[in-house]
Amino acid sequence: MTARRWHILREDASLTLARHLPARFDIGVVAEFPKMGKLRLAQQVRQDMWRALRDVRGFSPVVHVEEQDHGLRLRAGGRVEGSAPRAGLETIIAGVLACPRNRARWAAFAGLRP
Q1: What's the domain range around 81?
Q2: Whole-structure pTM over 0.85, yes or no?
Q3: How many independent structural domains does the chain possess?
């Protein structure tokens, strides 16, 4: 899929990356990150979250990144059409967000800022 098919909503110090509008979080997990490029981080998280949940029918990823004084607050999840084990999906997303290898790769790609 090309980047043109994704909606990028920028509002003050936040950014939302979504496939469908309005962006909706039927499921979601929050994580904290140091300051880095919001769009690049959102794209990488969306990609890895999609890889982990691609077999879930009706799943459409959404990533929201908000800049705060201490760093970034990221919410990853999205829309789920139909029945799906929401708690199980959130556990998978939490695992993707907590993985040290993912976080290191995302930081390198998004230009971690000291």
Answers
A1: 12-110
A2: yes
A3: 1
